[in-house]
């Protein structure tokens, strides 16, 4: 599970209950008004990256009037995806509770597991939030993409 805990901020970590429909875990943190959530989930019914991504964006934007965020994509997200699993990223802005917010959702898939990053920040700190989110997404994606011990044993 990829979870970055802030040095000074609130955080939570939860494993889905054993009787949950889907296996997984989630963690979230808040620091300086920026909320970051990570979810790793294995759905009980087969699905696709595009379906999970579309549902994630729809859920994030539900009840809002989102529009494309016009800011600069993080340098980390502009790097070559070589060696990484496939992923999708959407950046939006929308009024939330009367205040304009930056919203980012990123989703990747590997061997039936889906990794999701969700970021929400005040629009005034959107560029900083996007830069930080891109860097940590890239790090998390590299770990998520790396072969694990069971993969190496199966190949060997």
UniProtKB/TrEMBL annotation:
This is Uncharacterized protein.
């Amino acid at each position: 599970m990829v979870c970055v805990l802030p040095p000074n901020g609130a955080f939570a970590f939860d494993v889905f209950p054993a009787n949950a429909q889907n296996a997984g875990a989630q963690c979230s943190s808040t620091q300086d008004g920026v909320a970051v959530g990570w979810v790793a989930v294995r759905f009980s019914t087969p699905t696709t990256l595009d379906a999970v991504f579309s549902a994630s964006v729809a859920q994030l934007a539900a009840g809002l009037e989102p529009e494309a965020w016009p800011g600069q994509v993080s340098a980390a997200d502009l790097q070559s995806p070589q060696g990484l699993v496939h992923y999708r990223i959407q950046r939006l802005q929308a009024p939330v509770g009367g205040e304009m917010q930056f919203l980012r959702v990123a989703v990747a898939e590997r061997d039936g597991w889906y990794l999701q990053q969700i970021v929400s920040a005040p629009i005034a700190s959107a560029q900083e939030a996007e830069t930080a989110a891109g860097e940590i997404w890239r790090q998390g994606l590299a770990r998520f993409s790396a072969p694990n011990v069971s993969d190496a044993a199966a190949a060997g």
